[in-house]
Design brief:
about 300 residues, alpha/beta, seven-stranded mixed sheet, 12 helices, about 15% strand, elongated
Length: about 300
């Protein structure tokens, strides 16, 4: 057998329950978000407005205003400018735009320890292949979809961990944009695309994203239809990737157990299985047409 890296989450408490994940150090960007959020709250209350009223004036939801005031969301430049003007802050909010941008740039995106080996290899990959049977690949997820998935995790994750994980997942997507980009293929189950996780608005936005990404020249997205009577992927989801100048590796992640496989025979079997899965799925063109029909059916 060749080298196989296996990393599992050992934070298991009495009775088998998983303990809440601890913070991974101080996050200056998060601290700045909280400070700016307090300023927004102070100015809003001074104006005599509720969160709902302020959101209505600025075109944002009440929940978003609440999240911004608690420091759970990073305020965007356009929000800071609009809120500064509306609340008569005299530049108090607008002036924080540069600081927030610098804090985000300095803050290293931190992946969970068990995921770091894979994330490093993914960043070096010239080819990435996904088979997903219960979710959409993280590289394809919208920010709202990713946040909804982390918010529904059990046991619950704390708000800071959620924001950190969302930022890390979205940051990974930058590997799709440099030139030359990696070749990416993905097979996703039809049932995944019909389940509106996060609500219909979030789901529609996610379908839009899949259509956009599926039309990129370096991306081939396929859907495994529910009507298939034979399916080579019943063993569960997995990823195959080829880091630049290195052999292909496999990665699986199930119930908080992550495994990076480098054994040549094991990887060969996964690659052969993936080839069969792709052959059983709809073609990329048929898949995009199916997603378009889903998008307009509601």
């Amino acid at each position: 057998m060749g080298a196989v890296t296996q990393v599992t989450d050992t934070r298991i408490g009495p009775g088998g329950e998983r303990r809440p994940e601890p913070h991974e150090g101080t996050d200056s960007a998060a601290e700045l978000n909280r400070a700016v959020g307090k300023q927004v709250k102070l100015l809003r209350e001074r104006a005599g407005w509720t969160q709902k009223e302020l959101g209505s004036q600025l075109g944002y939801s009440e929940d978003l205003i609440a999240s911004l005031e608690r420091g759970r969301r990073t305020p965007q430049p356009e929000f800071l400018d609009a809120a500064d003007d509306l609340l008569g802050a005299g530049g108090l909010l607008s002036v924080t735009k540069e600081d927030i941008a610098q804090a985000k740039a300095k803050a290293r995106v931190r992946h969970p320890a068990w995921f770091r080996d894979y994330a490093r290899l993914e960043g070096e990959a010239v080819e990435i292949n996904f088979y997903n049977n219960h979710d959409i690949p993280g590289l394809f997820q919208t920010e709202r979809r990713a946040r909804a998935l982390y918010e529904m995790r059990k046991p619950l994750l704390d708000e800071e961990t959620i924001e950190q994980r969302v930022a890390s997942r979205i940051d990974r997507q930058k590997i799709l944009t440099p030139w030359p980009p990696p070749m990416v293929t993905a097979v996703v189950e039809e049932a995944v695309l019909r389940r509106p996780l996060g609500g219909w608005e979030v789901h529609k936005e996610q379908l839009d994203q899949l259509l956009r990404l599926g039309r990129l020249r370096n991306v081939e997205l396929q859907v495994m239809p529910m009507e298939r009577t034979e399916h080579a992927g019943m063993g569960g989801p997995f990823t195959l990737l080829i880091p630049k100048g290195k052999p292909q590796v496999g990665y699986t992640e199930v119930q908080n157990h992550a495994r990076l496989a480098t054994d040549a025979e094991e990887v060969r079997i996964l690659a052969a299985r993936y080839g069969t899965i792709r052959a059983q799925a709809l073609t990329p063109r048929e898949s995009l047409e199916l997603i378009e029909r889903m998008q307009t059916s509601r």
